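dude i think i finally got it to work??
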Amino acid sequence: QVQLVESGGGLVQAGGSLRLSCAASGPTFQDYGMGWFRQSPGSERKLVASISWSGGSTYYADSVKGRFTISRDNVKKTMYLQMNSLKAEDAAVYYCAALTSGRLASGEYAYWGQGTQVTVSS
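look at this
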């Protein structure tokens, strides 16, 4: 079991950058692969990027590949999403989640944070 809290969202102009953080509590953070999801109004929650427990393997959705970078620090129990060259379509509530079964791109994410809002203006 792990508790997750996102932070770092805010308002940014198109072309700008933000870094999201996901702070975890509990002793088993290092045992989980982790993912960032986002959800826009009227849309299903979609996986944006994910990272293995060691940080040695990552997955990115095609829509963000080359612009976003996922990373984690298991000592600090924190996961990050560096978002560059932001576009209007990146605006959403971003959630972090812990992978409890399966693979990074298609597995079951059972533990979720409350989300942080990212707004992109132009």
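The chain has a mean pLDDT of 95.
im so relieved honestly
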